[in-house]
Design brief:
This protein has 14 helices and ten strands. A four-stranded mixed beta sheet has the order 1-2-10-7. Strands 3-9-8 form a three-stranded antiparallel beta sheet. Strands 4-6-5 form a three-stranded antiparallel beta sheet. The chain is globular, with a radius of gyration of 23 Å. The chain has 352 residues and is an alpha+beta fold.
Length: 352
C-alpha cells in the first residue's frame, strides 16, 4: 500500500493524530529536524544534528494558506473548511494530525477552526492599511512547542515565501526545537500564563515558568524592569537623549543578564538608540550611532537570517544612516543642520 493510499484511508479527524508520525516524517521537508513525541507535551520538533546560533534550522513552504479577507468569522471558517477539503490526501493527513486546542483542553470535537486557530502563523506583518496578513500552516514548523526560553526564532521570510527558523541558542542533536509564540520580554509569569491560557489553552512549564520562591520573584522583578526601561526610552528620548541612551544601555544589560531573550528584542532597543543618536540636534551623539546599528544588524542576522528583508534594511542603514525617514524629515524641516549628512559620512568613515 502506498503512503498516500494509507493516509487517504486513515485521514479522519476522529483518529488519534500521533499514528501518522512515522509516515509524515517519511515525507518530511527536512532531514535536520523531525516530529517526535515529547513526554508531557504531545508532538514536538527535535533536532537531528547540532546547530550554532544564527544557523538556519528550517525553511518551510506552507502546505495550506488561509486568506484573511473573509467578511465575517463564519465566512472565514467556511473558507478554511473549503481549503482543507481541497487538499490532497497527504495534505489532509498532515492537517488533521496537528493539535486542536479546543479538543486537547476542552474536550471538544476536533475541527477545522480548532486546528487553524491553534497552528496558524501569519505570513508577514500587519499591512499599512491595517489589513492582517494571510495565515498559513506547516508540516513541521507547527510542531515546534512554545518556551519562554526558546532556542529558535521563527519568522515569515517574504523573499523566500517560507517560514524560517533560525538557531538563537546552541542546539545539540536530540534537543527539542523550541520557539516562543509571543514576545515575552518584560512579562512576568502571571501575565505570560494568562496570555497562553487565553490564546492557546495551555500553561507553559518551561524552565522560566517553573521557577519558584526567590528565583521566581527575581525573574519577575527583572522582567518588570525590562518593561519599564522600554517605556522610559520613548518617554524621555525627545527631552533628554542622553538619559534615553542610558536607559537603552541598562535595558541591553538586563537582556544580557537574563540570557534567554530573543535577539529581536535587542534589535528594538538598539534601533531606538541608533535613532536617538542621529536625531539629537547638537550632533554630539552621532558618533555613537554606528555601534548601535551594527549591533542591531548582528542580532537581526542571527534571528532572521542575513538575507531577510528586515536585516537587509539594517545593512543599508549601516551604509547610509541618513536614509532613515526620520532623518530625511529632519533635514527637510531644518531641525537638523544642513551639513548633517557630511558629518555622518565622516564619522562613519572613521568608524570603518
Amino acid at each position: 500500500v502506498s503512503l498516500c493510499a494509507y493516509l487517504q484511508a486513515t485521514a479522519a479527524p476522529s483518529e488519534h493524530p500521533h499514528k501518522w508520525l512515522p509516515y509524515l516524517n517519511h515525507a518530511s521537508v527536512s532531514t535536520d529536524v523531525a516530529a517526535r513525541l515529547i513526554p508531557g507535551a504531545g508532538v514536538g520538533l527535535v533536532a537531528l544534528r547540532d546547530f550554532a546560533p544564527g544557523e538556519l534550522v528550517l525553511a518551510e513552504t506552507p502546505f495550506l494558506v488561509l486568506p484573511c479577507h473573509a467578511a465575517s468569522k463564519e465566512g472565514g471558517a467556511a473558507q478554511s473548511a473549503e481549503a482543507v477539503a481541497a487538499l490532497s490526501p497527504m495534505g489532509q493527513a498532515i492537517f488533521w494530525s496537528l493539535s486542536d486546542k479546543y479538543e486537547d483542553h476542552e474536550g471538544a470535537e476536533r475541527s477545522v477552526v480548532g486546528v487553524t486557530e491553534t497552528n496558524g502563523l501569519p505570513m508577514g506583518d500587519m499591512g499599512p492599511d491595517g489589513v492582517p496578513p494571510d495565515g498559513a500552516l506547516y508540516q513541521l514548523t507547527c510542531r515546534a512547542n512554545h518556551s519562554c526560553r526558546p532556542n529558535v526564532h521563527h519568522q515569515w521570510d517574504p523573499r523566500r515565501r517560507q517560514q524560517v527558523l533560525h538557531c538563537i541558542r546552541p542546539i545539540v542533536a536530540g534537543d527539542e526545537v523550541l520557539t516562543s509564540y509571543f514576545d515575552y520580554a518584560g512579562m512576568g509569569r502571571a501575565d505570560r500564563q494568562a496570555l497562553q491560557l487565553r490564546k492557546w489553552k495551555f500553561s507553559c512549564r518551561c524552565g522560566r515558568c517553573s521557577l519558584t520562591g526567590h528565583e521566581l520573584e527575581a525573574d519577575d522583578a527583572m522582567q518588570l524592569e525590562i518593561k519599564e526601561l522600554d517605556q522610559s526610552i520613548g518617554m524621555v528620548a525627545g527631552l533628554d537623549p542622553l538619559k534615553a541612551l542610558q536607559y537603552g544601555e541598562e535595558r541591553i544589560s538586563l537582556l544580557d543578564k537574563d540570557g534567554w531573550i530573543d535577539p529581536c528584542e535587542y534589535v528594538r532597543t538598539e534601533m531606538d538608540c541608533f535613532q536617538i543618536c542621529l536625531q539629537e540636534q547638537s550632533g554630539r551623539l552621532v558618533g555613537m550611532a554606528p555601534w548601535w546599528i551594527a549591533q542591531a544588524y548582528l542580532h537581526s542576522a542571527m534571528a532572521r537570517g542575513a538575507m531577510h528583508p528586515q536585516t537587509v534594511k539594517l545593512e543599508r542603514l549601516m551604509d547610509d544612516p541618513c536614509s532613515l525617514p526620520a532623518i530625511q524629515a529632519g533635514l527637510e524641516s531644518g531641525k537638523l543642520p544642513p551639513n548633517f549628512r557630511e558629518e555622518c559620512e565622516k564619522l562613519w568613515a572613521e568608524d570603518d
